[in-house]
C-alpha cells in the first residue's frame, strides 16, 4: 500500500472555472452522508472573503430534500489542495474540524473531477452532468486505484438529473 505522500493532486486549478454545479457520480462511504441519498449535488461559489461556499444538496432516504452548507479554502497557490468544514460559522476557526479536499484528477474542460484526501478515506467522482460514460468513470476510478484508494465499498447514488431547489428546501423546512 502506498503512503500518504504518494497521493498527488493536479498541478493547478483555476478556481473560477471550478466554481458552479457538480453532480456526485460515486464516492466512498462516509459516516455523515446517507448511503441511500440520491440526486446529490455540490455547488461551489466564491464568497467576498475569498473562500468558497460549499452548498451540498440531496434527497435523503426518506425522500426529503436536505442541504449542508460549508466553506472551503485553498491551502496554496495551486488551488488543488483545499480544506473544507461544515461546522457552523462561529466554530469554523477550530483547525482539527476541517477535512482535506484534494483535486486528484481534473479534465481540461473542467467537466470531471476526482477528489480525495491524503489518508485515502474519502473519494468523490464529480461531474458537470448527472451521468458520465463508463469509459470516463473507469479512467478516473483507475487513477484513484493507482493512488492506492480501495474502491471495494464505492457507492453510486442514483442521479435523475433533477436538482434540489431552494423552493423544495423551504417547503420541507430544510433550508440552512
TrEMBL record:
The keyword Lipoprotein applies. This is Outer membrane lipoprotein Blc. It is found in: Cell outer membrane. It comes from Falsigemmobacter intermedius. Keywords: Cell outer membrane, Lipid-binding, Lipoprotein, Membrane. Involved in the storage or transport of lipids necessary for membrane maintenance under stressful conditions. Displays a binding preference for lysophospholipids. The keyword Lyase does not apply. PANTHER family: APOLIPOPROTEIN D (PTHR10612). One of its GO terms (cellular component) is cell outer membrane. Its main location: membrane. Belongs to the calycin superfamily. Lipocalin family. It holds the Pfam family Lipocalin_2. Homodimer. One of its GO terms (molecular function) is lipid binding. InterPro entries: Calycin, Lipocalin_ApoD, Lipocalin_bac, Lipocalin_Blc-like_dom, Lipocalin_CS, Lipocln_cytosolic_FA-bd_dom. Residues 13-159 form the Lipocalin/cytosolic fatty-acid binding domain. GO terms for biological process: response to stress. It comes from the Bacteria.
Amino acid at each position: 500500500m502506498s503512503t500518504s505522500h504518494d497521493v498527488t493532486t493536479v498541478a493547478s486549478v483555476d478556481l473560477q472555472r471550478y466554481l458552479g454545479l457538480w453532480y456526485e457520480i460515486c464516492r466512498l462511504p462516509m459516516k455523515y452522508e446517507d448511503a441511500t441519498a440520491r440526486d446529490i449535488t455540490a455547488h461551489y461559489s466564491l464568497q467576498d472573503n475569498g473562500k468558497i461556499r460549499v452548498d451540498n444538496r440531496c434527497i435523503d432516504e426518506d425522500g426529503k430534500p436536505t442541504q449542508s452548507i460549508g466553506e472551503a479554502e485553498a491551502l496554496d497557490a495551486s488551488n488543488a489542495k483545499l480544506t473544507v468544514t461544515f461546522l457552523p460559522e462561529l466554530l469554523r476557526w477550530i483547525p482539527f474540524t476541517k477535512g482535506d479536499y484534494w483535486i486528484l484528477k481534473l479534465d481540461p474542460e473542467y467537466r470531471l473531477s476526482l477528489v480525495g484526501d491524503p489518508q485515502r478515506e474519502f473519494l468523490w467522482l464529480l461531474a458537470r452532468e448527472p451521468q458520465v460514460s463508463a469509459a470516463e468513470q473507469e479512467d478516473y476510478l483507475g487513477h484513484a486505484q493507482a493512488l492506492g484508494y480501495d474502491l471495494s465499498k464505492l457507492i453510486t447514488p442514483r442521479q435523475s438529473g433533477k436538482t434540489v431547489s431552494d423552493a423544495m428546501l423551504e417547503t420541507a423546512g430544510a433550508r440552512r
